[in-house]
């Protein structure tokens, strides 16, 4: 490896070279699918790279396999959640009358939008998320949301303010 490589790239290249095969095997044992294991291992290293860019951590890594397992578990959870969301949406589409059928391109765009929305709302409390979705997707007013959730209008106002702030910060952090 040339000496001119920046430290982060050098560390990531070493981590990848030393542990990629091991991580694929670890994932294959849990997923029972070599293709999915290879994909998720790749996604794990992408996530490591992105995490290291925002907060350098590879140079201080003492237990690389423990770290990779933690990151891979998070990637698996995200993958399972995305797949479940996509399946629920596709099931809903399958139940719609034929006159409301949409093209594969529209379906793909809607699934992508749902996944982005799910990522944006990740980390919000259940009530905050529910109030925000009732407001944004169903168009309910604060009074109606409060009645449906059995909380005060003041609570709904706070929930939606918190969700809106969360979404704005997410958009700023992710360049959206």
Automatic annotation (TrEMBL):
Domain spans labelled RNA polymerase sigma factor 70 region 4 type: 115-167
Example GO molecular function: sigma factor activity
Family statement: Belongs to the sigma-70 factor family. ECF subfamily.
Protein name, entry field: Sigma-70 family RNA polymerase sigma factor
A GO biological process held by the record: DNA-templated transcription initiation
Organism: Candidatus Pseudomonas phytovorans
Superkingdom, taxonomy of origin: Bacteria
Record bears the keyword Ligase: no
Keywords of the record: Sigma factor, Transcription, Transcription regulation
Keyword Transmembrane helix part of the UniProt annotation: no
Annotated RNA polymerase sigma-70 region domain residues: 15-84
A Pfam match: Sigma70_r2
Annotated signal peptide: none
UniProt cross-references to NCBIfam families, sorted A to Z: PRK09651.1 (NF007232), PRK12528.1 (NF009180), sigma70-ECF (TIGR02937)
Gene3D superfamilies: 1.10.1740.10, Winged helix-like DNA-binding domain superfamily/Winged helix DNA-binding domain (1.10.10.10)
